[in-house]
Amino acid sequence: MALGDGPLIVQSDKTVLLEVAHPDAPKARAALAPFAELERAPEHIHTYRITPLALWNARAAGFDAEQAVDALERYSRFPVPQSLLVDVAETMARYGRLKLVKHPAHGLILEADDAAILTEVRRSKKIQPLIAKPIDDLTVPVHPSARGQIKQELTKLGWPVEDLAGYVDGESHPIALNHDGWQLRDYQSYAAESFWEGGSGVVVLPCGAGKTIVGAASMAQAQTTTLILVTNTVAGRQWRDELLRRTTLTPEEIGEYSGERKEIRPVTIATYQVVTRKTKGEYRALELFDSRDWGLIIYDEVHLLPAPVFRMAADLQSRRRLGLTATLVREDGREDDVFSLIGPKRYDAPWKELEMAGYIATAECVEVRTTLTDEERLTYATAETRERYRLAACSAGKLKVVDKLLAQHAGQQTLIIGAYVDQLEKIAQRIDAPRIDGKTTTKKREQAFQAFRDGETSTLVVSKVANFSIDLPEAAVAIQVSGTFGSRQEEAQRLGRLLRPKTDGAEAVFYTVVSRDTLDAEYAMHRQRFLAEQGYAYRLVDAADL
What we know:
Low-confidence stretches: none
Number of helices: 22
Shape: globular
Helix content: 25-40%
Strand content: 15-25%
Strand order of the largest sheet: 11-12-10-15-16-9-17
CATH topology of the largest domain: Rossmann fold
CATH superfamily of the largest domain: P-loop containing nucleotide triphosphate hydrolases
Number of domains: 4
Number of strands: 24
Largest sheet: 7 strands, parallel
């Protein structure tokens, strides 16, 4: 590509601007994705940032500095600043200068390829308690129980360690895929292979693209006892049903470890809540980790992983770990913890590519803007900052929008999603539809979801309990009335409820109803960032024009 006509503008502050309308924009986006993170994505120019973590993730995935430099130079409109190219190469070179390896006499050791690096990290107060007296200038023993913690601390120090200490095989258990009327899709088998080659790490797939099947394929490859950590009991039961359908496992081989049951079997599905619960100051669930010689641990929705689970049971580092998620963004900014403790990103499937291949439904995103009444504006203007968002998110104008949208999509399977229970209560009463929130029992939830799947009810009002791991294949319309502040992953998950391919091949529509000139509109912009990165554009509509 000749200089002067590429779609990228690369700047020395590590930002990269992408011109969306350029004919080569899709290729440039695909070339950037492994090593740059999207920051802003309005209509015409998207802003990416090259961060150390993104570069190390790329490096762990087998992507080297030459490829990154080549991508930038090939698609850049102007000469790429030399300082940035040097910085990319040097940052990527930091990955793997320190290695964790097994040693016959010392157990676990940290190896450096340069004595100065080892001396630098040994001086860190956070590292000192984790290591013993050096063997020589380049090697130092590490306490086996500190394998996870030392990886975490070294990433923070800017020396991400390559973990080559291997994995225990765990207790063997025969598991095979049951190909009864279905086959693994090409990207699913590639994701499972990429994970297996790396031994641990994260697979990023859109909702509806079959993350559970990637988990099942990895289990069939491992042939070992498996612990699966999920967000809630309903998600756990969906995992169980899917494993029974897709593999040779029998109901007796799969246990549920939740608030209701405490079964430990060759394949055990536990919820994060139970695992992180403290009783009399102790994590009781640790017995779960120690009860079996697990060969594989699967973390569903890994971006939600509670911080205590990270630190829990230090020997988990010697087990193979598979993280599954639709988006690696964490709103607490702890993506580096996922990187160091679960592992680097092994596979990432762009949403739009899967859509083009027909694996997920096409979706249209529409932002409907409403205006506050004079009375609401006055209340909003005088309210405390904390209260403002709730006032804007729950404005009365949104109820009329919901009515109009339901009338437009009469007869289609519709989800109404929100964050405030009182708002959802009003809507459910108004349209006479079942409501599911945090207080709804697991049994009632399952019944309501089943009635929706069977087409007995066409509308469901759901709180954020439906953000994750809920399988509603025929849902074709979602109306989002309020969200959790500016959460990007929530937006992605909510759209994900619609992405299962429909039997009639219909397009899904995702509406987000926003109060203009308020915090609600501000947060909506933030929420939409991740989806914009995946190539979804929001069409703006005024509520009056519906």
